[in-house]
Prior knowledge:
The chain is an alpha/beta fold. It has three domains: 5-41; 69-278, Rossmann fold; 283-454, Ribosomal Protein S5, domain 2, CATH 3.30.230.10. The chain has helices spanning 75-81, 101-114, 131-141, 156-166, 191-208, 280-285, 332-346, 371-383, 409-418, 447-454, and strands at residues 5-10, 16-17, 33-38, 90-95, 122-126, 148-152, 170-174, 212-217, 236-242, 248-256, 264-270, 273-276, 295-302, 305-317, 325-328, 353-359, 391-393, 396-397, 403-404, 423-427, 440-444. The termini are far apart. The chain binds thymidine-5'-diphosphate (TYD) and magnesium ion (MG). Magnesium ion binds at residues 101-102, 128, 174.
Amino acid sequence: MAKRTTRYVCQSCGQSSQKWSGKCDGCGQWNTLVEEFVQPEVKGKGARRTASSTDPVPIGAIDADRDARIRTGLKEVDRVLGGGIVPGSMILLGGDPGIGKSTLMMQICHRLGGSSDAEGTILYISGEESLRQIKLRAERLNALSERFLVLAETNIDAILHAIETTHPALVVVDSIQTMYRPELESAPGSISQVRECAALLLQYAKSSNIPMFLIGHVTKDGIIAGPRVLEHMVDTVLQFEGDHHHAYRIVRGLKNRFGSTNEIGIFEMRENGLREVDNPSEVFLSERSRGISGSCVFASIEGTRALLVEVQALVSPSNFGMPQRAVSGIDGKRLSLLLAVLEKRYGLRTGQFDVFANIAGGVRIDEPAVDLSVAAAIVSSARDAAIHHSTVVIGEIGLGGEIRSVSHLEKRITEAEKLGFERVVVPKGNLKEKRKGQIAVVEVETIANAMERLVK
Ligand code: TYD
Ligand code: MG
């Protein structure tokens, strides 16, 4: 067999060279050269034919067993995955260092190792911790199931060999950034190493039908494992997020070839590992104090579930020249927009005030349906008048100060009712049918209209 070599290829124009350099000779761009493998060329007769080893098949004849998913035993994870792990699939779990990725994966390994859902062993490969460290953690998590094998290794060849010999039901690689292929000169964690190792694992996963989890550290700007190189290769991308200062952690699906991507799973980090949160609304509202101005409850939709959260705002006179605007859990630009609309359409001047807005508990809300509750919390704080504690506020605000319809209103109201709220303020005309329940539904058309009902 011909000797394999590597070369450096510009990711922008495709020009290759033998040596790395900071600037591409072809297109003049900087830092675009990445080390890649050169597969030896097959010359002569039959070269082309060997390129494809399988024949096309009629789509109806493909055998795809739909119920073959492996349940992890953690409801919250299964839901995000779309019902469980699909055999042969590759799942990337990204998140900040220290958020709990290894903990989550070990708990899944332990569950699968002790249940009949997965036949065979579960292989957990760690390139970050020694066997002793892994053992200590497993003891803490009480995750010492018999079929749970661990391997501390970073050489991808050794790892593939171990997978081949143990033929496990699931492989976890913690983390893909620590793995390396010796033939490549680049350091572990570089784009070429990460991509090459993931490609080898992916190939193996597809051909052997063994599902794999890859753990990836997220860089500062939220990009998984070196410029998104892995996102398009894998079947599913999960993001593990949360605030280090809070115990709550959220697993979010960013991409899923086998399910929807807007589901979330909620966990609480405890002394002995992650615990699933069954009643997130109750949890996120648990620390709310009643009768305080600047607080408003919102019913959001996360995937198929409604989730009640507390929106907080604080408006206070600014002591410095530039008034501050700071947010956590909502979009900062959206806050500026809401302040502008409040000024123009409702006459609330905040030019001389600092404004802070926050979603309690470290959750992030991206949907515009939260607008009205943010605005209500701001007005409540500015006027120092509390919004009644058993009121939920839902609605998007338009630039004209009008309250616009939101999706899944019925589901949001039902969740509010379930938690004992007495009144819900919603966009006018949004409810298609009249509700029969206990909760009073107040329809509002404009900001002024809404504030009249909310802030006395
Ligand atoms: P870890 O899973 O090591 O994070 P990652 O793999 O994403 O880097 O989690 C580390 C944090 O979790 C650490 O700060 C301690 C905390 N933790 C607990 O609070 N309880 C536990 O049972 C465990 C194992 C960790
Ligand atoms: Mg870890």
